[in-house]
Amino acid sequence: MNYKLSKYLVFSEPIINSNYRLVYSTISTTLTLLKVNIYDKLINKDFFSLKNDSIFDRLISSKIIIDKTRNELEQIIKYNKKAIANENVLYQIISPSANCQLGCNYCGQVHTKKSLDDNLNKKITARIAVNITLKKYKHLHIGWFGAEPLMGLKNIKKLTLGFMNLANKNNCSYSANMITNGLSLKKDIFFDLVEKYKITKFEITLDGTQKHHDLRRHTKLKEKTFSLIFKNLKNIVNDNRFEKSKHKIIIRCNVDSSNYKSTYDLINLLEVEKILDKISFYTAPIHSWGNDAHLKSLTHEEYSEFQIETFIELIDKKHKVVLLPGIKTPIVCTSLYEHAEVFDTDGNVFNCTEISQVPIYENDDSFKVKKLYDETYTNNNRPYSSWNDDILNGEVPCTNCVILPICGGACPKLWKENISPCPPIKYNIKDRLLLHFSQNNRKILSKKNV
Ligand code: SF4
Ligand code: SF4
């Protein structure tokens, strides 16, 4: 028979009195419930008798069984490259200020009082005006990033008007998002940014409840910040305009071994204060930011177990959790988009978000794709642009990873620095299958996937 089993499958342990197993294809991103006799035939590559079974077509369409000649890795890389070539959103990321009020103990950046000035604003706008013509873009998206972007609020307002014009002239739509510490995100500022400056998504960090957050995310003078950020958040989500608008607030809780347990209390607090049902919530492990911050991290396995527990907590509270990706990740991050750029207040242009203001990269020009103050500077080696070929050529463990299609390789920079960036789903995907199934089992059974 000219078939083989896909390499990109994750099977659950036996379920429902050991009569079934789940299989998730990371290429088709579909979950299928299999009777154990079908599972046994699959594992034993008995495609001949499977061919006569009613499930056969489904096994083919879900890419569980594939043509024997198919090279799946080559096809994944081809798909990823095509996605990069076909991308029609131009992503540009801007730090409008090099300053931040906070002095978080895991931050790798050095902050200064610098902001973009009119000269640099013009240079950035001119550069983006060129970038938007480099291919047939349909949408311009700006990421306001930091340091703390709200420290450069004036620049955000000035630049946005120019960018909206630019998008319009090039027949593109426009949107923006912001990663902020939330300290200056007063209700009026929030709605002004939403309504006039088209910022559709805000990500705010709360590292647990007050006690834990204030130990880590304090000001540079060690002042507490939780209560002010929380007050801003409450004021925003309780305003009538918030529910009417389609804008999104995402709360990110950065965790390591010192604060992870307080995540549950934070989730409870968000529920009690009637915020949880109005926002998205996720936890993220602390990683190296050109520093030693990752040394206090939970191990991959510990974090993955903890993540499943937070999912259960959130599901219990009827909060939406994405357990299994419904789509692939062909473009893993900013660095891989053809013309995505990151602009800072020194006039440096990068293609990765974690380089600016980090001392160990200060004198390393290899990460700079352009210097806006140095017309003569050129760098034809955009960092990580060979990422997909690196995977194809077996240069990183992603080459042999069963979840490559949904992960994409996580972070090329960390792999190059010999730090594994594997996301928790690599370690807890089997638990996710079961959780997903327990949430949706009626739907799956009624589709008669068996
Ligand atoms: S980063 Fe880790 S989980 Fe992701 S594809 Fe690479 S090896 Fe797999
Ligand atoms: S290479 Fe890593 S750090 Fe840089 S933008 Fe991509 S994911 Fe972020």
Description of the molecule:
The protein is α/β, with parallel strands linked by helices and 450 residues long. It folds into two domains: 3-70 and 424-446, no CATH class; 87-419, TIM Barrel, CATH 3.20.20.70. The protein has 16 helices and 14 strands. A nine-stranded mixed beta sheet has the order 11-10-9-8-7-6-12-13-14. Strands 2-3-4 form a three-stranded antiparallel beta sheet. Strand 3 and strand 4 form a beta hairpin. Helix 12 packs parallel to helix 16 (425-446). 38% of the residues are buried. The model has no long low-confidence stretch (mean pLDDT 93). It binds iron/sulfur cluster (2 copies). The site of one iron/sulfur cluster (SF4) has 12 residues, from helix 14.
What is the terminal separation in angstroms?
A: 22 Å
Structural class: alpha/beta
Strand order of the largest sheet: 11-10-9-8-7-6-12-13-14
Integer average pLDDT: 93
Fourth-tier CATH superfamily name of the largest domain: Aldolase class I
Q: How is the quaternary structure best described?
A: single chain
Query: Would you tell me which CATH topology of the largest domain applies?
Result: TIM Barrel
Question: What percent strand?
Answer: 15-25%
Order of helices and strands: EEEEHHHEHEHEHEHEHHHEHEHEEEHHHH
Number of structurally distinct domains: 2
Secondary structure tally, helices: 16
Instruction: List all distinct small molecules, including ions and cofactors, that are bound in this structure.
Output: iron/sulfur cluster
